[in-house]
Fold this protein.
Amino acid sequence: MNFLNIEEAISTLKKGELVAIPTETVYGLAAFVFDESAVKKIFSLKNRPFFDPLIVHVESFQKINEVARHVPNALQILAEQFWPGPLTFVLPKKPEVSDIVTSGLETVAVRCPKHAIALKIIGQVGPLAAPSANQFKKTSPTTAQHVDAEFKNTKLPIVDGGPCEVGVESTVLGCIENSNSITIELYRPGAVTEQQIRDCLNKTAGLNKTAKEIKFVRKQNAASPGQLEHHYMPSIPVVVVQDEEQFEKQSANIKEKLKVNPLDFVDLKLDKNPVFAARELYSKLRECANSNKGYIRVFAKAIERDGMGEAIWDRISRSATLNYSR
Ligand code: TXA
Ligand code: MG
């Protein structure tokens, strides 16, 4: 274990090294965004392919202009309500932001995290590129201990900020605004929900008497290169079935495909309230993976799909090796 205090983390980042830092969503593996060789270390430590762009974390809305050229009006309105918080904007990038950060895209993803430690570090170092602090495609970390287990033997410096309050990654969105409509492009569902975004934009439009049609387009499997079909996977397989009845019908298939005893499973059990379910999701997946069972069984029927449930369902379905519920 290599736990650092805030001052040590600041000087380590300034020297061009990586530090895992807490945010309200998940722990991030951070590098100073304008130090290209530090940013490259993120990709090699995570085994992350260069086609998967990073999110840049800024101290405040005012600092967005250090990395982005322009912010559509609708996103400014959303930032007023949700920043600091779990909402990431895809914006036209400044030339100073390296192609390594954005995977050669003309856009950069930016967010302001709601975590006192993260904000203090960013305030002293400058904008930080930080993906979730896990190996590529694996389960994201929501405690410092998760990060430590993920990067055992690497002496990765970690700042322990306790368990993450939100528990799933930020909502990622872009925006196309014209004279009579606002199109929100949703790249990744997260803690800020479609309804909250609509309510916020509608309320402001009402106040300004400038009502525009608000359209929502889901781009989860396109255009956002990190949104792979398989992601967030624990160290043992996840099998999603609708319910007990479907499980019984599929058990021969499970046996054949995974080469396991179909009864050698542990159930993923989450809180009924999606806010608590999100908070405990990755810890529970890790606990299940450490159970010495053959696989993790998830009942799709038990997972709430509305509101924040959309993010939970997105992560569970991407973590699945087999999904019979579709
Ligand atoms: O909550 C979070 O967002 C966490 C914490 C650490 O802030 N970070 C995080 O980063 O989840 P990461 O790298 O695991 O996920 C970044 C996501 C990927 O799905 C990637 O495709 C998308 O953001 N992304 C990044 N830049 C993009 C861009 N220019 N256009 C579209 N999608 C982008
Ligand atoms: Mg990630």
The chain has ten helices and 13 strands.
